Each structure stands twice: as structure tokens, then as C-alpha cells.
Amino acid sequence: MKKHPPNTISAVIIAKNEEVRIHECLSSLKWADEIIVVDNNSTDRTTEIARTFGATVISSNATDFSVLRTQGLQAAKGVWILYVDADEVVTKELELEILDLLQGWSRAVDSTCYFISRKNYYFGVQRPVGDKMQRLFYKPAFVRWSGSLHETAIVYGSYGSLRHELHHDTHRNLEEMVAKTNTWSDEEARLRLISGHPTIAPWRFLRVFVTGFIRSHIKEFGWMAGTHGWIESMYQGFSMVMTYIKLWELQKKS
């Protein structure tokens, strides 16, 4: 792969059964010095496709996202680590911005961690509001990942933000959405149980549905996306109800 001295870049991807989308993700990372795919028990052609791009594939059984990201970090040889999810694409503008930043980067004056904005697409339609994620790190300043599901990076030094975005193609169809919710809600419910969440009362199911719907539809301007926005907002409420039903089941077992 092409070198960009003085700072080498390792791209780290966590993937599970992403044969449909990982090709586009990997194609957008050809400029990186190294690509590492942490495969989480895929049963499709994810690893085969990754190897055709020259990626180093690490197999992992971990369910903790901090562990998965750390495994990729430990295997990386680059001075800089760029985390990209398998359903994301690095735009050409973002690629050039990162390379330009690192060419003139100095630890004495610049940040050691950078947030990257995302344009999120649901059912192929862009959501009105995006988000920002910690994605680019100076490896010598990296401390650790914290959190099993909604993981956060702890880094020595200051934080900065890049101007250009990742394209995030999530929630492409209902089947995929339900499968993802079924997986994530298990861990969400477990974390709430461990934290000592109060015993679930029936009214709470309605409350969390309304909370999820309002956040997505009003606060995140889902209403501006028309029918797609209504579907996504209702689904966000449903996802929260699923988590609390599973929490209720765990509380009964306890």
C-alpha cells in the first residue's frame, strides 16, 4: 500500500456478516498503509472479501465493543489509527483532509484524537441530523477503550474535529433492523440490570416508546424525512421497548 510519511495510518474495521457492504468500505480505504478487519464470527464471505484487499483478518469471539476495538488497536502497526465501521465509507474529501492533516501534524500544537462527522442513511435516505464519533487517534497517546456497547476512547492530549464526513449506510431494510436490535438489546438489558435498574412497571414500556419516538422524530428532525422519518422514529421507540422487555425478563429470572 502507498506510504504517507512521516505518519503511517492503520484502518481498523469491526465486522460481522458484512459481505454486502464491506467491499465499498474497503475500497474507500485503499490509501491507508494497513487495513485490519476484526471479524466477529462471520458466517458469510466477509473475511474472504477482506483478504482480497490485502487486509489482516483477526477472528474474535468477544461481544464487548471495547474489546473488539482494542484487539484491532493492538494488531495495528501504524502511528495513526482510523476506525471505520463496515457499513461506513470514507469520502475522497475526508481522505484528503486526513492526509493533509497528518503531513503537517505536530504533537506540540495539534490534537491527538479527532472526531469525524457522519451522514447517516436509513432506507437509503439521508437523516436530517448526523452525529460525531471518535475515529482518528495518535496511537502513542491512546490509553484505552471504555464501555462494552457505547464505547468511548480515553486519550492523552486534546480533541479536535475534522470537517468532512463518513457516509454511514445503516438500517437498509426492516429485517436487518430487527436483527440488529435483537442483538444490541441483549447487551443493553444486561447493562441496565447490572446497574440496578428499578423493577419494571407496565407504564414504563409506553414511556420508553414515547421517549425514543420523540428523540428521533422531534429532536433529531426525523419528521423532515417524510415517510422514512416516521418509520425510523417508530422503530427507535420499538427498539427501546425491546430492551426494557428483555430487562423485565432478566429481572424475573433474578
| Regions with little confidence, pLDDT below 50 for 5+ residues | none
CATH superfamily caption of the largest domain:
Spore Coat Polysaccharide Biosynthesis Protein SpsA, Chain A
Count the strands?
Answer: 11
* Overall number of domains: 2
Euclidean distance between termini CA atoms: 53 Å
**Quaternary state of the chains:** single chain
Strand content: 25-35%
Question: How many DSSP H or I helices?
Answer: 7
Structural class label: alpha/beta
> Largest sheet at a glance?
9 strands, mixed
Radius of gyration: 19 Å
Give the CA-based shape: globular
* CATH topology heading of the largest domain: Spore Coat Polysaccharide Biosynthesis Protein SpsA, Chain A
CATH top level of the largest domain is Alpha Beta
The H-and-E topology, N to C, reads as: EHEHEHEEHEEEEEEHHH
CATH architecture of the largest domain: Alpha-Beta Complex
Helix content: 40-55%
Average the pLDDT over all residues and give the rounded result. Answer: 91
Question: What does this molecule look like?
Answer:
This protein has 2 domains: 9-170, Spore Coat Polysaccharide Biosynthesis Protein SpsA, Chain A; 174-253, no CATH class. Helix 5 (174-194) runs parallel beside helix 7 (226-253) and helix 6 (202-219) runs antiparallel to helix 7. The mean pLDDT is 91. By secondary structure, it is of the alpha/beta class. The chain contains 7 helices and 11 strands. Helix content is 41%, strand content 26%. Strands 1, 2, 3, 4, 5, 6, 7, 8 and 11 form a 9-stranded mixed sheet that branches. A two-stranded antiparallel ribbon has the order 9-10. The chain has helices spanning 22-27, 46-52, 65-75, 92-103, 174-194, 202-219, 226-253; strands at residues 9-15, 34-39, 56-59, 80-83, 88-90, 113-122, 125-126, 131-138, 142-146, 152-155, 159-170. The radius of gyration is 19 Å and the shape is globular.
